[in-house]
Design goal:
Layout: H1 12-22, E1 31-34, E2 41-46, E3 50-55, H2 63-75, E4 81-82, E5 87-89, E6 99-103, H3 112-115, H4 118-132, H5 152-164, H6 171-183, E7 192-194, E8 203-206, E9 209-213, E10 220-222, H7 230-233, H8 237-247, H9 251-271, H10 277-292
Length: 298
């Protein structure tokens, strides 16, 4: 079973052909598929120092161009490494999307247990604070995250998704969290940079320290509350407390962050219900963590 209904098949033969035609200087390097490639790209390690990233679904087309434009402007302001494209590949007759060659960053994604480490939670929140301090002039919402929770499309999709996963989560209680987030005062500050998907598969650590942030497909500039979703999709209570202390959101931002956690998780559960059970289960746990907390306004 493929992950997406309209997924584009990608294999080593296609990648070798694209490299030979567009970047022959790299075509002789060893090419090995990376099995843990995320949700919208196929990854192939190229030699020791590079990785080829190819979108496998139409919504990911354009991510490489955005990363090539904006990540160099952010890299010097954040305390971790970013995988900035070193070359952009063009669509071809047998492949429809822009693709990229990026540096292969050292490190490994943290385990679930490592994500509960208080030090790592503090370092991740420190990265978020540094990212928020970057100049966002000219940036905007590049995707669906970071905007108003009152957006009709986001609201309809969240409610519909909760109905469709009501056999796996307490949909009524989760809807209460969503509506509480919508009732919170909206973000009225300047557009702020966010990554938008800081779950552990997009993080790299070495010796217990955060060293890299991957996959900027959901990034943009808007409401920083969306960055708080990681508190529930990847962290336990103690790590969440540290992250909150360092991030230092006001109460309204925290409430909107809970809403983002519910909305993102609710949409992932039916989408990945059968194709990627691990993603489904991660999102079920995220909603359960939200509901286990004292989320109601007092």
């Amino acid at each position: 079973m493929t992950m997406h209904q309209n997924e584009i098949p990608v294999d080593e033969t296609l990648v070798q052909r694209l490299l030979a035609n567009q970047f022959p200087e790299w075509s002789g390097l060893p090419l090995v598929r990376v099995l843990e490639s995320g949700t919208d790209h196929a990854l192939f390690r190229l030699g020791d120092a590079l990785v080829v990233r190819l979108p496998i679904i139409d919504w990911a087309d354009g991510q490489a161009r955005l990363e090539a434009t904006w990540l160099p402007r952010l890299a010097s302001y954040v305390p971790v490494a970013l995988s900035i494209p070193v070359a952009l590949g063009a669509p071809a007759d047998d492949y429809p999307f822009t693709w990229s060659v990026n540096p292969w960053l050292p490190g490994t994604p943290p385990t679930a247990e490592e994500m509960d480490d208080r030090r790592l939670a503090g370092e991740l929140a420190g990265f978020v604070r540094a990212l928020q301090g970057c100049d966002a002039t000219g940036a905007s919402l590049f995707g669906s995250r970071g905007g108003s929770l009152a957006n009709p499309d986001r609201d309809e999709a969240t409610r519909d998704s909760l109905r469709r996963c009501s056999d796996l989560v307490d949909a009524d209680a989760a809807l209460g969290v969503w509506e509480d987030a919508q009732a919170a005062p909206p973000w009225d500050g300047p557009a702020t940079w966010f990554h938008g998907d800081l779950q552990r598969g997009n993080l790299l650590i070495q010796d217990g320290h955060l060293t890299g942030i991957l996959d900027w497909g959901t990034f943009g500039a808007g409401d920083p509350a969306v960055e708080l979703a990681v508190c529930w999709n990847s962290m336990g209570r103690e790590a969440r407390t540290v992250f909150r202390d360092v991030f230092a959101p006001d109460e309204a931002t925290w409430r909107r962050g809970r809403g983002w956690a519910v909305s993102i998780a609710a949409m992932e559960i039916p989408y990945y219900r059968d194709s990627v059970p691990a993603f489904r289960d991660r999102s079920v746990r995220a909603i359960e963590r939200v509901l286990a907390g004292e989320w109601r306004q007092r």
